[in-house]
Amino acid sequence: MAAGSLLTLLDDIATILDDVSILTKKAAAKTAGVLGDDLALNAQQVSGVVAKRELPVVLAVAKGSALNKLILVPLALVISTFAPWAITPLLMVGGLYLCFEGVEKLHHAFQHRGKKSEHEAEKEIKQLAETTPSEKVETEAEKVKGAVRTDFVLSAEIIAITLGTVAEADFTRQLAVLSAISVMMTVGVYGLVAGIVKLDDLGLYLTQQFNAILRKMGSAILWAAPFLMKTLSILGTAAMFLVGGGILTHGIPWLHHQIEHMGESLKAMGGIIAVFSAIAPSLLNGICGLIAGAVVLGIVMSYKKLRGKPAH
Q1: pTM (2 d.p.)
Q2: Residue 224: which domain range?
Q3: What would you report as the CA-atom Rg of the chain, rounded to the nearest whole angstrom?
Q4: Residue at 311 is within a domain
Q5: Those residues with Cβ within 8 angstroms of residue 151's Cβ, 6 or more apart along the chain or in another chain
Q6: Number of domains in the chain
């Protein structure tokens, strides 16, 4: 009798694990796009750190990301159980924040574009060299906080997408899948970010080898690394609008349907125009995100101006 009960228990556990595996694969496929955006954004956030401090900063952000998910997973389960209607509004607030942050970055970049003379640039480099260790730690802390805040929004979207995938499953399976996705996304994203930010060190190491092929590979990596980081910076900013705008438009059914209809209309035209039907919805989401972020930035700047604070 006891042996039969044990076999039944083991069979139940095997069934649950099998279901969790299938649901995790489905959730991973659906969140793959957000994973790419998360990678670009976080590589951008930790760029500009002193070389020997890159990995500690990435590790600090990874710890913050893990903490975000420790907060979000139980919160998602509670909301799903007691207030499922609140998931979309909360996601939209996060999406709006991403769009605002993206526009703020663009505004700051254009505001200071071309304003630095060669003398000012040299002065900034000298000031950076004279920065005390405590000030450098403070700067790193600000970078980590900014990256963790951005990660919170993207993690919330990942958790929400995963929750939608397992909505019909029981609590045990929901918890197992959400936990598995959280671990996979955190390790995957920040493992890749750590690899990207240390590319220049790898290139330098290879250039010091005796093998001519390795030296050429090292030189190629050193040449390509700055372009890769610049590209990731641009993609990271674009991802803020694509992800944030996507969250906002999905939360407004009529707008989401209009965007989908436009994509289908382009596809129906055939020819070269049909090629753009696949990317048109994402571009339209990005435009909506850019507009929404600009509106929020305008409101924030007006509020600061009324209170007598600098608007930048």
Answers
A1: 0.68
A2: 2-306
A3: 23
A4: no
A5: 38, 41, 42, 61, 64, 65, 68
A6: 1
